[in-house]
């Protein structure tokens, strides 16, 4: 016997005033509700209701039992309403990770209005060039460059950007040669080769710099480039936001596009809070291109 189901039906019989009214409320037949009551009384070994053709009265045992059944129904209703509320208004914790360059220039600006709009959302942003594990590190949303090989997570392409070889606008007239300092990011590896293409002139250019200077963030690279220390790789949306302080080192030439993906652990029903954050990040990325 499903005890909780029988207790719930009993509470409805009491509250609706009759088996007939309870059956109509539960959208089942009168005989089904009557059977629930009979089985319940048999299992408990006590009479819960005294019934006549016109009324029903709780026995002392039935009164005490009803109070517990009513409390169970109330808790179930509250749980149901809470679950429904999460579908209507974003709430709860959302843990988001992204590389340093994308976090400060894309993710954080996109999430800022979300934080202001939804007071019940608790946002945790983790800026790291290290790829955190979605499940082991309890990540709700990971924004990454390039497709992931992980099979235990869902991933969605949300846009793209291009890296740009840049230098300070104040050095734009200077010729790039072997003495030009290349400011490399630590994630680029020991040997760096850039293959650029000019679509308007259909020309290709290979640039293989010496890596004498390394930094661990795009912001440090940007600061060095703006000061005229050398040339380096900067995302195109950061170039646009630089107010003309930096410019292309090889005007007209492009590097291949970088595809941005959103990874998450939700197979079917993504929480509304996560969905709202993902949409905000995608929209911000679309604006930046």
How would you summarize what this structure contains?
This protein has 8 helices and 13 strands.
Description:
The chain is 40% helix and 25% strand. It contains 8 helices and 13 strands. The strands form 3 sheets. Strands 3, 4, 5, 6, 7, 10, 11, 12 and 13 form a 9-stranded mixed β-sheet that branches. Strands 1-2 form a two-stranded antiparallel ribbon. The protein has a two-stranded antiparallel sheet with strand order 8-9. It is rod-shaped. The model has no long low-confidence stretch (mean pLDDT 89).
H/E series, N to C?
HHHEEHEHEEEEEEEHEHEEH
Number of helices: 8
How far is the first residue's CA from the last residue's CA? 61 Å
* Spatial shape: rod-shaped
Characteristic key phrases:
289 residues; alpha/beta; Arc Repressor Mutant, subunit A; D-Maltodextrin-Binding Protein, domain 2; 3 domains; two-stranded antiparallel ribbon; 8 helices; rod-shaped
